[in-house]
Write a structure and sequence with these properties.
The chain is of the alpha/beta class. It has helices at residues 5-14, 19-34, 70-79, 81-88, 107-110, 119-125, 127-133, 144-152, 385-393, 398-409, 411-414, 419-434, and strands at 91-96, 99-105, 115-118, 157-161, 171-176, 183-184, 187-192, 197-205, 213-215, 218-223, 228-237, 241-251, 256-265, 268-271, 274-277, 283-293, 297-306, 312-322, 326-335, 343-352, 358-367, 373-382. The chain is globular and about 65 Å long.
Amino acid sequence: MELSEDVVRRISSAKKEPEWMLRRRMGAYAKFQEFPIQKFGPDLSAMKLNEVEWYVQGDGKKKTWEDVNPEIRAKFEKLGVPEAERKFLAGLEAQLESEAVYGNLKKEWEGKGVIFTNMDEAVQKHPELVKKYLGKAIPPTDNRFAALTDSVWSGGSFLFVPKGVKLEAPLHAYFMISKEGIGQFERTVIIAEEGSSVHYIEGCSAPLFPRSNLHTGIVEIFAEKDAHVRYTTLQNWSHNVYNLVTQRGIAKENATIEWVDGNMGSLITMKYPTVILAGEGAKGSVLSISVASGKQNQDSGGKVVHLAPNTNSTIISKSVSSKGGVATFRASVDIRPEAKNSNSFVKCQGLMLDGISKNNSIPKFLVGNGDSFVSHEASAGRLSEKKLFYLMSRGLSRKDAEELLVVGFLESFLKELPFEYAVEFNRLIGMEIEGQAV
């Protein structure tokens, strides 16, 4: 369906949104119309925006899994999402297509003032907080797909952690596309007040359809003084999803923002988690891995902007490409003149499993003063035949030996995941290498 003002108005009307949100959507749509066709990064010319289904209305969010439509519940149970909530999560939000189908926060954290809900509900119940933060890190003028998402967004998470509250267990949001040709445009806002800490985990998946799907999410993180936010993404889209995401966090004085970013599946991914170090002593890190197989083009990495003195950042990326897949790492470090005595370390490693796959590294460094330091390491290569021979001589098949070496290569990422997620990610890596993932 061709995107138009009428489509934007109908989405807002279906959600019974206040007038200020409709005005915001219409302004973003106008910006989207002004942006030229995207030329940066992978070729997106085959993507057909006029065939996207922009919004699918659901039957509302449920507080218990028993109340969720059995057919929908079965989809999430197959992925182990309800089981993960029961075992070790502090809260869970689950979204299918355009809207949340389930949401729950354990009473222990609700009693301490934590707000964890979907963005649609936040607009209705917490409008002042939404107005204060929405779009402050990523305005619709940022890029074409940020403007698109801002105009047609639906769902996503809203998380507010009060001053001094430290969540001892992760919060989890799972986004699923199960309908052919649909676009998913969630917006997520995370606010961590002074001295608070939280670990938020995002999971994504979609089955394979003849017609491609589009995902253009926006994530904004606001870490106030001494706050600590870790955002972990585990994306396993099918091989015909365009995954075009904008993610940015702002860290105030002595705050820390960590992106732990895992990208598998999708036809094309463009995602570069960003940290703006706005307060003295702030820290930011991006740990990114990508697996590209066949026709996949994984274009990912990280960006850091140092605005304050004595700030530190790290960007580490590892990519695996096979069967002709293309993995591209982009790093951008910008240390401004006022960010005295700041340091940044950037490292990227690429592993190619055959002679037809590609790995690219494109770093960019801007250092605006003589008191700061940036270091960079990059390497790319094939699997060691000596190591393969050694493992195969001990009884492993070549496939199992390759999988073991790839898992070892990605160890720095896997050890940052909760155990249950690391086990699942290991399994998915094996499926990608075999070309069996959907």
